[in-house]
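INTERNAL AUDIT FORM
Audit reference: QA-55
Scope: verify that the stored structure record matches its stored sequence.
Auditor: D.O.
Record contents follow.
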Amino acid sequence: MAVEPLNNRLEQIQRYMDHQKLDAVIITSPRHVYYLTGFNSDPHERFLGLVIPHGDEPVLITPELDRQAASQASSVQKIVTHTDTQNPYEVLKSTLPSSLRQVGIEKGHLTVNRYEQLKAAIGAEVFLDMEALLQEMRSVKTSEEVQRIKHAIRLVEDVLREGLKKVQVGVTEIEIVAELEYQMKKLGAQGPSFETMVLAGEKSALPHGKPDHRPIKEGEFLLFDLGVYADGYISDITRTFAVGRVTQRMASMYEAVLAANRAGIDATKPGVTFASIDQQAREAIAERGYGEYFIHRLGHGMGLETHEYPSVHGENQDIAKTGNVFTIEPGVYIPEVGGVRIEDDVLVTDNGCEVLTTFPKELKIIG
């Protein structure tokens, strides 16, 4: 990730600190450390933190075993490490001013145990949550972030094309999952961005169903929900296919979901509420008689993580902004019959919205 946007992000943090009169900010989630420094890691149980003292140089604290990787990737030049035998909170204390009153932290990330250790070590009086600011910053993607998301989308669409070659009557859901995840790494992704989902027949009516050894049969839906993680960003796509000929009712279900997907895309533009986007898609399904079977929100933000701000649902009165990236994924789920979901990733632009996913959406017969 280019250094200039990272520096701009740290400047935004410093301006917020001025406004809130914060003596320091301590960022501990790996995703936000990456977002602010360019250093991407999984510290497991070890302590990772970005310390931003008010008006002073930021400090990246990493496990000693990550020193070399951090020095190569991080835009923050001052790096302090801790060994497995050191108390990382004492190391943290050494990077901070001796007198602290107000400190910004990520309350949603810290466990109670880690919060208590941090509080005991640094002795601040007030802890302010940084989540709202970070959420707002991350919700508007830069052009570089959009390009990374597009790259992850191109990868997952290639993966889906390859995975479909595996489909035939008698093959199990889990065999297709294995092929998809093999293709992810073969084609250049780090791996799946969430648990890959392939659901056949009546199981496609489970929005969060688990693939298993169920064989695929003639005359049923086959639902794919998958994404990849690549260069720090994710993709997320859902497509539903017909294995052989399906009933007229099933074809009607599909057309209702496709109409809702298109209505949600048409409703997306800067200045509208997320609630209104959800409503337009929901009405398209209700008009076709399937309203009671659309049982979840229309979509969710995406970028560094699979689910992030905004949540696109009927009560969210927040306003869509240029640079927001989120999914539009209406669905209809009828128990014992099957389910249909069609999911696209979209970018809010100055003039409306750009659909980032390009995989065809018309009902396709496979197998």
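Auditor finding: record pair retrieved intact. The mean pLDDT is 96.
Action required: none
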